[in-house]
Amino acid sequence: MPGVELQPSESNQPYHRLLNDYSNKCRHRSKAFSFLNLVLTIVLVLSGLLLLSLLKPLVDPCWLPVPGSRCFWPYHKPHTLLLISMDGFRHDYLELVRLRLGRDSLPNFARLEADGVRANRSINAFPTVTMPNHHTLVTGLYPQDSGVVDNSMFDSHWPNETFDMGSQKSLNEAPWLDGWPEPIWVTLQRKGGLAGSLLWPLTDNFVNGDLPFQQVSQFTTLDGSVRYPYTKRVKDLLWWLDNPRYRLDLVLAYFDEPDETGHAYGPESEEVAEVVVELDKALGQLLDGLEARHLRDKVDIILTADHGMTWITRDRMIVIDDLLDPADYSATEFSSVGLVYPKPGKEDEVYSKLHGAHPHLKVYWLSDTPSVLNFNHTNSRMPAIVLLPDPLWHLVHSGIHGYSPEFADMNPFLIASGPSFRRHEVVDQVYAIDIYTLMCWLLRIRPGSNNGNLERIANSLLKPEVAERLLSFERWPEWFVWVTLELELMWLFMVVIVIASAAIALGMSLHMQRKYSRLAEHSRDHYEDKNPVF
Q1: Pick the CATH number of 80-313+403-486 from 3.40.50.1820, 3.40.720.10, 3.40.50.300, 3.10.270.10
Q2: pLDDT tens column, 166-184
Q3: What CATH code would you report for 314-396?
Q4: Which branch of life, at top level (predicted)?
Q5: Catalytic residues
């Protein structure tokens, strides 16, 4: 009869109850997968937004990368870092020139000072000569540990070779830096960055199989007849910094003055003042070029030097040949410091002849060298005997350097300017040994073992918020630093893997939801077919 529901027979009731339970179970599972789909969709959307923010292009055309470009960087790309060394630029040269030529005689150094922070003195490393201190700047190590102990040196591993910074053959044919701590530019390029070197010492030969991505050889000016004008050097620097095919992260630039003029005429000479004015013009060309290219707020500049300079007169000479037989020893340095390598079996004899031989000469076994010099480690390159004449005593006339960094005339200056540094401030001193670790953290690369102190230099030079960020980064757990810096972008690929996994899971979940929805619908229809309503 119409409107009368026919009840299933008692024999079919278990079957229909099971069918109804199965339908309900399928509906519940379908709803569970619907909720899972919603969660996975939210995860995918949020992960996608995060990924897009992390992969934000650094420049508009970066989606079509050109050779040498790296479009993306964790968090955001560090500012380009430009390290400039003006050889032999004593800490007080700016003041001496302004006293001689007038307050406004160095307008571009003044610009850099006003836009940045100046350290009146940079405490450099012993011996205060060119090659060791340039290598200290890029390794953060004292010469006793960096492998570059002097401008020329011996190594017991190559008994018939002499390292000499003026010899292209000795620098390029022997692996002088293999097996020693790598400089910052090697670490940077191994991590995916790019470096340029303009005349920077010890960047001509391969170091751990690598060369700077862009390079002007230090031997360009080795021959005095070859002139590489400052205007051309600055043009090359600006081309490197502005060229989208290069996108350099670190540039090391070397200027050979005022060292050469200081040696020839003395540190307080008119000739040195004229050279400093010439360097000021080159600096102005650089600053104007950066501003014209809208790079001034994208480049951090550290301007410093390797050492200072002082006067030496003929009445303060110590003639070593009057004290020793040249056949009994070899030496790589006889100037403001003496590095003596006695012939085998002659060590005690050489030491006894030197010790007490002159009232203004101190003689030390290497292990007894004053700890303040950080020059007493034993390795294949360190001398057996170290000679330290009193300040202003030497073997040559006019200008010289190399004395202990405790002698203020040996200290260079430092000016740091750019988006990371304080503005219009002056600090008493910084330590050259700290510059390496500062540069590493600014470039977001993990520094190697070094003698520097990040906190000491960061609090002196950096804006407070930048210093706090770098110092907190340095204090991160070792494993976290390893993940973020050593693995570079591996963490980014892990995010991509998570997104891909979530997408696959969402697809499978949608499939299962549809499956259980169909099963629930089919079970309901089948149940209704078995239970008609009239």
Answers
A1: 3.40.720.10
A2: 777 766 665 677 788 999 9
A3: 3.30.1360.180
A4: Eukaryota
A5: 130
